[in-house]
Each structure stands twice: as C-alpha cells, then as structure tokens.
Write a structure and sequence with these properties.
Layout (H helix, E strand, L loop, with lengths): L3 E2 L8 E2 L10 E11 L6 E8 L7 H4 L4 H10 L5 H9 L10 H16 L6 H12 L6 H4 L4 H14 L10 H17 L5 H16 L34
Antiparallel strand pairs: 1-2, 3-4
Helix pairs in contact: 2-4, 3-4, 3-9, 4-5, 4-7, 4-9, 5-7, 7-8, 7-9, 8-9
InterPro entries: DUF5714
Organism: Blautia obeum
Pfam families: DUF5714
Length: 243
Amino acid sequence: MDHTNNSCCCGEAEYFSGCLICGAPITYRAESSIQTCSICHKEQLTNAVCENGHFICDACHSYGTYAPVITTLRDSTEKDALLLLEKIMDLPSVHMHGPEHHAIVPCVLLTAFRNNGEHMDYDAALSEICKRAKQVPGGTCGYWGVCGAAAGAGIFMSVMTGSSPLHKDAWPFPQKLVSIILSRLADVGGPRYCKRTSRIAIEEAVHFYSQFCSVNIPLSSITCKYCKDNRECIQEDCPYYSE
C-alpha cells in the first residue's frame, strides 16, 4: 500500500501512517503541553507529538478528508455497511488513524440505512452528524475512555432517534449503543486501531438499530488489508486480522 498521499492542506505529500510530516511513530504523553502545529502553526494543548517533534492539529490532520468522503457517500448505492466502510477507508484522503474516523462511522451508518430503504432527510441528517462528529478530538479512546468510533455511532443513534439531553424516551438509546460498543472494544483490547474500532462500531450499531426498524443491513465478513502498515497491529487478537 502507498504510504503517502497528497491531501495535506499545505499541498505537500503526507504519510499514510504515523506522523504526516515524517512518518515517525506518534508518542502519547500522560500530560498535555502547548505545541505549535507543524502545518498551520497555531498553538494548541496536546498529548500527541511524533518522535521527531512534529505536532499536527486535528483540523490539519483531517484537512481534505471530508469532501471526498461525503461525495462518495452521497453517490453510493452500496447496501452492505462494512463494504461501504471499506470503500470509504480506502479513499486516498483517509489516513491509517485519525479523528476523521469519528465522522466516517456515523456517516457510513446513515448511508447504509438510506441505501436499504430507511426513510430520512438524508442531507439534513448527514450535515448534523458531521457537525457533531468533528467535535470529537483525536485520542479520546486513551484519554477519555470513550473511543471516537463508539461516540460516532452514538451520534448516529442520537440523530436517528431525535435524542437530546432532555428527551426522556430517546435519551437511553445512544447511551446503550455506545456502552455495547465500548464493551466489545474493551474485550478485544488495545492499543488503538481506527480501522478495527470503526468496523466493530458499525457491526454493533447495525445490530442494535435494526431492532427498531424493519430495514435489514447486510454485513460482510471482512479481513483487514492494513495490517502491514499498522505499527500497533494486535495481529491474531484482532477479529479482522489477515496474515
């Protein structure tokens, strides 16, 4: 798999895995510090810096990702939620890891249900999902105890049920779904892998939401094609591992 693409907001080629600037592993510190983004040069509190000292803010990391993702999803007729997820993760603008996966999960779920006949205002729901999911920062799995893929699935469920902080009937459903996903993620174990957590979140969300609608969503059996590019691959412990 090609280790670089050209979606960086500075116009330069970037690395698919690790640091976008140099490809070195990212180190995650216990305490936050103020760092200057190597791309936009804005200062920000962060726990994540590469081994060579580069820091990339979430906005720059995801720059150029959302437009091709949204365009592909809007035009898609794919009914299988996991095959649709794989197609999106294969886009050149989507990195090995990163906060873009927090939005990809709910957007893929929404599109799969639309493609299988669920009634909705798709464009309005897609816009609201993207707005909410972009607020979930990178690294939440380790620092908040809430994986961004699970949070993304919760956002999907919230939008579909009309949940809000004061909605008595709908409020429990996103909480329940996220708890199911987090339980399975914890059972599989770490460290993080955005592809693995996204697939699990999609599977559990489809099973959960299908209880409340008449739509049946196909889910293919997936084997991971990114293993060799993932420094943190847990290999046989991952349900999608392929040698």
